[in-house]
Amino acid sequence: MTVLSPADIETFRLPGLEHQTLANLTRGTYTMEVWRQTLASGAVAPWHRHSCEEVVVILSGHGEFRTPGRAESFGPNATLIVESDAVHQLANTGDEPLELLAVMGMTPVTVLDAAGHLLELPWDTPLPARAIDTLGDGPSGGAIRSCSDTLKDEYK
Asked: What is residue 127's three-state secondary structure?
């Protein structure tokens, strides 16, 4: 078990966004990441996608969840469910900061723009070369088990 104090968690700041990675490979989770983010009033995340499901829980604030051709408003305590590879964006439409928790169904999470180009983020967790080399190998013959086992060894 791991217990992290706020002082243990680095905060990354981009224009209109504060980000903290609460759980990932470096903190002992091998199949998911948890992010805490705050979007400033009027801030809009870029259109993006990732090859995993995402569940976003709105802690406070009001905003709009957008996918191509669709926009839906939300407020505090809303839960947003994003399918794997769905192009999407969040916008803070309120006067107060929008605070959220995002649970990502993989780690590390690779974020791409809508056209599929890599968005390099300051909080990215690099995938060890050893894990990439073993994809598809291993006793189960499956990439997930093999990669997960390698990542556990790498980040213990």
From this structure: coil
